[in-house]
Amino acid sequence: MDPTLVARRRPTSYPVPSHPASATGVTFSNESPAALVQRLRQRPGKNIWLMGGGELARSFLQADLVDEMYLGVVPVLLGEGLPLFPSGFPQRDFALLENHTYSKGMIALKYKRLRSKPKRKILIRPPPLVAPPSCRRG
């Protein structure tokens, strides 16, 4: 099992299991995106997989740490909520790599970050509706 890191804005407010993270494979962190990525890049492995909501994805995008992005478009208008890309967001250039259309109207899009020098990949995929924000190294 690959290690799982749960990214949090504040320290954990609920009890963490008493057994060590090595037994559960889960580690909690409230580091900045840049510090977290720098630490994870010291470990062996190829890609860092980030799965979380708009705020978590936005913090990694603002720090320009994302190399590929997966977006799912669902034909439902919510009317409110946190935008993934709010006004004043810094411009980032991406190229469409893949798109898939599903029978119920959902569209899956995969983008690659356009930059002069490639870095170790960080992938973003929106979470399942019930999953807590987490950062996975894969």
What does this structure look like?
- The chain is of the alpha/beta class and 138 residues long.
- It has one domain (4-10, 22-74, 93-137): Dihydrofolate Reductase, subunit A, CATH 3.40.430.10.
- Helix content is 15%, strand content 30%.
- The chain contains 3 helices and 8 strands.
- The protein has helices at 21-24, 33-40, 54-62; strands at residues 4-7, 26-29, 48-51, 68-73, 94-101, 107-113, 122-125, 134-137.
- Strands 2-1-8-3-7-4-6-5 form an 8-stranded mixed sheet.
- The radius of gyration is 16 Å and the shape is globular.
- The model is unreliable at 130-138 (pLDDT under 50).
The arrangement of helices and strands along the chain is EHEHEHEEEEE
CATH topology: Dihydrofolate Reductase, subunit A
Question: In the CATH hierarchy, what is the architecture at level 2?
Answer: 3-Layer(aba) Sandwich
Q: Estimate the strand proportion.
A: 25-35%
CATH class: Alpha Beta
Q: Indicate the percent of residues in helices.
A: 10-25%
The count of β-strands is 8
Q: How far apart are the termini?
A: 10 Å
Count of discrete domains: 1
Number of helices: 3
The best one-word shape is: globular
At the fourth CATH level, what is the homologous superfamily? Answer: Dihydrofolate Reductase, subunit A
Largest sheet: 8 strands, mixed
Low-confidence stretches: 130-138
Spatial strand sequence of the major β-sheet: 2-1-8-3-7-4-6-5
Helix and strand content put the structural class at alpha/beta
